[in-house]
Amino acid sequence: MPLTDTAIRNAKPRSKQFKLSDEKGMYVLVKKAGKYFRLDYRFAGKRKTLALGVYPDVKLAEAREKCDDAKRMIRNGVDPAQVRKANKAMQVEQSENSFEAITREWFIKHSSNWAESHAKKIIRRFELHVFPWLGGRPIAEITPPELLSVLRRIENKGIHETAHRALQNCGQVFRYAVATGRAERDNSADLRGALTPVKHGSMATITEPKKIGELLRAIDGYQGTPVVQSALKLAPLVFLRPGELRRAEWTEIDIDNAEWRIPAQKMKMKFPHIIPLSEQSLTILCDIQPITGQGRYVFPSIRSDSRPMSDNAILAALRRMGYAKEDMSGHGFRAMASTILHEQGWLSDIIERQLAHAERNKIKAAYNYAQHLPERRGMMQAWADYLDSLKKGGKVVSFG
């Protein structure tokens, strides 16, 4: 007699498991842990059992459909248990070879060589803009139009540069998948020219001497915390990237030898960097040392001295001083120094080395971080004196 849903629902567990038989060899195995649909069958002379689901997640009608499918396979000479095993293996393989799984594998292998802030931006970009639509897809099955559709979503938000960066990052993941045998080609390569071009503007900066003087006087009058004010005062003197400046540690500062030596892992280009400290820079550091010198960071966070100050602190201070984003940026101090030092006639090699710009030959760059150090010392002191003259409103004098 065929089973009914009522009979299954009302069946109570006993001290030993028991069966409720249905038609076509299917039955419900009742245990203390639950009620399980099963099918006993013979294949190639062997007795086998196939699980059809757990009641009530799987209803009686659904279990019977699964039973009919299994019987059909058996009649056609196919073992349903082997089919299920193969399907599970395929699901595992697809999961391991999904775009998200391979991306995270690629990220783990490469992120140790990146600055922490850079690594966070990359993985966050994937999590926000790519994984929700492509994360679960087997990477080998993702087509160029499918990838373009995801990138178009980013463009439609008006963040065109993010779309280009996402395409670049996806290409890196595809190439990693090719190298590790999980994909045949980099499908992102077919999308060159498919995105809206980005108009790259120069970092907002100030290069007119009179306006530089006004900026320096505004910084001197800034009423924020001593930590932010000291960082603001030091920024034009050392012209580092904002992230490199805010993560300064006291162990890197050698007051006696007037040097700041930044280890490779904290630099964008991953090579150590030396900043000769001018007399003006030393004064700023000596003034802030009694406040933060007992901790790790020269410019600690206002919330915790175990972390550096926010990467937005200098930018926010500039905004509070009245400098809009099109007027001045945290990176603008680098452009300011580069422009004026070149105009003053300092050798480009000396300026570029002090800016810690990329060296085409990486092996050469690893040994050249101290190159032109005596000349750089002279340039940094001359630059600091020049800024002092602008701040005082004095005569503009060319150095070099």
Automatic annotation (TrEMBL):
Protein family (similarity comment): Belongs to the 'phage' integrase family.
Name of this protein: Integrase
Domain Core-binding (CB): 97-178
Ligase keyword on record: no
Keywords: DNA integration, DNA-binding
One MF annotation (Gene Ontology) recorded for this entry: DNA binding
Pfam families assigned: Arm-DNA-bind_3, Phage_int_M, Phage_integrase
Tyr recombinase domain boundaries: 202-385
